Amino acid sequence: MTSDYKKHLYALVLAGGPGKRLWPLSTEKTPKQFLRLFAGKTLFELTIDRVRKLLPWKRIYVGIVGNKYKEIILGLCPRLPPANIIVEPEGRDSGPAHGLGALYIRKKDPDAVIVNAAADQIIDPEKNYLKAMSVAAEYAYGSKMLIAVGVVPSYAHTGVGYIHKGKKLSRISKTDIFNIDNFTEKPRSRIARDYINSGKHFWNANNYVWRADVYLSALRKHAKNIYKWLELIDRALGTNNEKTALKKYFPKVPKISIDYAISEKAKNFAMIIGEYYWSDVSNWQEVWNNLEKDKAKNAVYSFTHPKNLTILLSAKDNLVVSAGVDVVVTKVKGLVIVASQKGVLITKKEYSQDVKTAVSLLMDKKATLGN
């Protein structure tokens, strides 16, 4: 292998759109990746801080849904070139989002290898993450392989995908690279328990690395209904018709995740094991996992309003988040309680994944009532 990949290394940070599972704090105006939940920084800033240790600003690209978040991003990262913000007219999920980012980056550098990062993850220690990305980039640059990172599961998580490790393919800098036997997206509890006991299944961290041209080739082969529209956009990049083509064709792309579009079909997928703590902060259970707790395992967080009071009496194993209101919690266990002036959420921690469905029902009801 060679170090030539470093001259062609880029990052694509998918900052997406609003996330309903962290309602009522995550909203259309301020989605979860722009909330200051940890270390006084947003999840987006923490992600950018990581990739900045690999790359200069000019080789970092950010994908977002709609222009409304562009101002937020430039406010958080004033040194990011505005031209490096790729705006999707409509959200079409991760499969097309990765494809659109690959188009723009390939236009800049036909030999580009891309570190793909999601803007809603906690990763520690960073040095292990950076090593994993460097190894994956080196291998991807010199091969026709798509690379995924698998993280050793710590519990039977049903909200993430799993990777089944196959045979060893190579070794770089004391890091093994394996073939992938298969991907499984969000299994049921019983299957997830079997996976964590197998020693061969890993959480899919959505930390992907690949050459831009290799990913686009995978779309052309396995997701023709995505690629045909991206190809029309590609022809317009760098011309006066670029914005028109993007607005015209991208909404026609099917809405599909990378898992179903590519991962479960492609045979040229390899993996490395990420030796770091990883948390996809996609629900309130994961927020609780990453906050400090008292002796009764309660995590309390006063969001943007440190003077608000939260009183707990004989309460155990809860997450209590307040934003602009006082909260009193007494004699309950295992709950998520989020209280703000925009709404109140109460659920059992283990059902945090279901918040998205409930909030969708709320939004539909409000729309029906004209609110």
TrEMBL record:
Example GO biological process: GDP-mannose biosynthetic process
InterPro entries for the chain: GMPP_N, Mannose-6P_isomerase_type2, NTP_transferase_dom, Nucleotide-diphossugar_trans
CDD domains noted in UniProt: GDP-M1P_Guanylyltransferase (cd02509)
Nucleotidyl transferase domain sequence ranges: 11-294
Top-level taxonomic group: Bacteria
GO molecular function: mannose-1-phosphate guanylyltransferase (GTP) activity
Pfam families named in the record: NTP_transferase (PF00483)
The name this protein goes by in its record: Nucleotidyl transferase domain-containing protein
